[in-house]
Amino acid sequence: MAERALLATRKGLFELTRGAAGWQLGAPHFPGDPVSAVLHDARDGATYAALNLGHFGAKLHRREAGSEGWTEVAVPVYPPKPEGSDDKTDWTLKQIWTLAAGGADQPGVLWAGTLPGGLFRSDDRGVSWQLVESLWQVDGRAEWFGGGYDVPGIHSIFVDPRDSRRVLVAVSCGGVWQTGDGGATWQLRTKGMQARYMPPELAEQGAAQDPHRVVGCAGQPDVLWCQHHSGIWVSTDNAATWEEVAAPLSTFGFAVAVHPRDAATAWFVPAVADQQRVPVAAALAVNRTRDGGATFETLRQGLPQQHCYDLVYRHALAVDDDGTTLLMGSTTGSVWLSSNAGDDWQEVNAHLPPVYAAIFTKTD
Amino acid sequence: MAQIIFTQQLARFLPVPQLATQAPTLRAALDGIFATNGRLAGYVLDDQGRLRENVVIFIDGQRTRERARLDDPLRSDSTIHILQALSGG
Questions:
Q1: CA A183 vs CA A55, A79, A147, A172, A178: distances in Å
Q2: Is residue B41 part of a domain?
Q3: What is the DSSP letter of B86?
């Protein structure tokens, strides 16, 4: 059971600590600075915080296990754009959108998903980074387009716990890609997805898919859940095929979390639709399935049920390793916790900056 | 010697030098500073070596307009201010 949690927000990284009186909110790290991504590396206990300074660019800081201090490490840097390149993309780091730890057999390996679409790997805990050229140069990258931001970005990275060479990444907008050889080659994995915002003849095009978020079940890694721009999809065959799932209220949203061992259990936070990104009927709800998407329960206890316009963004819904403690934060700065898998929620704070990401961390 | 003055806003993040230079251009001056202060380069320039979108440079009271080559000439008594722009805040 986690004793700490972290909230990456528009104006700092806030830490929650579990004590005798419940979860307590502490003063922020990096007060005033946008924190775009946060990672707790269970292999060595280190925590990483990616900043997105408005003037001075993206930065990355590391906190060692047991330490209260942060050290700035390197950020991914795009290589010089070749002279005469017809690539319209600006080869400059705009933001670190997600961070992931490599496998248990890869100490020091980190992955970073970035805007404008580059995947980077570090072999030395963020001291240096290398662009994964095989994905950056993959056929069709020129067709990727912005989803959520003006430029494409990688927001989801899932390293298969059974084989660290198998890594899946999701791109808005550029589809879902998977490597089985540590990043040497990549395959599109979007069979079954539908991009309904495209002309009908292009709706099944792989790189046109906008997976808002993809998560994998650590205990059953063949099962992956996707909250897509056009609905909810689940794969039970390691992304070879995807099946669309119906859910109550709405299947539009950004966040998805999956139980760490029971792959049939997943949570979503529905919003009306892409043209109206607020809770249905201004009442916040969480949809939970416990049977792989065949049925859902809509959970509302403890969540605001009137005049609520909170949107839970793609990284801002977290489930602890215990499978029952949930944390979510909204773009209007509200934060809720549940200790019973979403049946009941408690408000932690309703006055934080916009929440970009939430994670649980183990006790250092 | 031309004087280069960095915004103290940067001091929140890293040591900020106040330097004198005999370099003939802004680019040469910056190259000289960043050769021994690599981390500072990442706060002022982007991945392609251009001035960051929300950083501005004034040379003797004139805002520089060329953001990629940064080849503005410097006089021996120039004063260069490297500041955060009002945009980006």
A1: 33, 18, 24, 19, 8
A2: yes
A3: S
Residue A179's DSSP bridge partners are A167
Map residue B10 onto helix, strand or coil. helix
ipTM for the complex shown: 0.91
Contacts of A129 in chain B (CB under 8 A): none
As beta bridge partners, residue B83 has: B56
Look at residue B57 and tell me if it is in a domain: yes
CB-CB under 8 Å, A90 with B13 = no
How far is the alpha carbon of B74 from chain A, nearest alpha carbon, in Å? 24
Strand partners, A114: A96
pLDDT tens-digit map of A72-97: 999 999 999 999 999 999 999 999 99
Q: Which chain B residues are Cβ-neighbours of A116 within 8 angstroms?
A: none
The Cα A307–Cα A330 span in angstroms is 14
* Total count of domains within chain B: 1
Please give the average pLDDT of every successive group of 10 residues along chain A, which has 364 residues.
92 95 93 98 97 96 95 97 93 98 97 98 98 96 89 97 98 97 97 95 95 98 98 98 98 98 98 94 98 98 98 98 97 97 97 98 69
Q: What is the CATH number of the domain that holds B64?
A: 3.10.20.30
| Domains detected in chain A | 4-78+91-361 (2.130.10.10)
The tens digit of pLDDT for each residue in A298-349 reads 999 999 999 999 999 999 999 999 999 999 999 999 999 999 999 999 999 9
Q: Which structural domain, as residue segments, surrounds residue B35?
A: 2-84
Can you tell me the distance from the alpha carbon of A276 to that of A291, in angstroms, rounded to the nearest whole number?
29
Residue of B43, B47, B55, B57 for testing the chain A interface, max A β-carbons within 10 Å: B47
Residue B89 resides in a domain: no
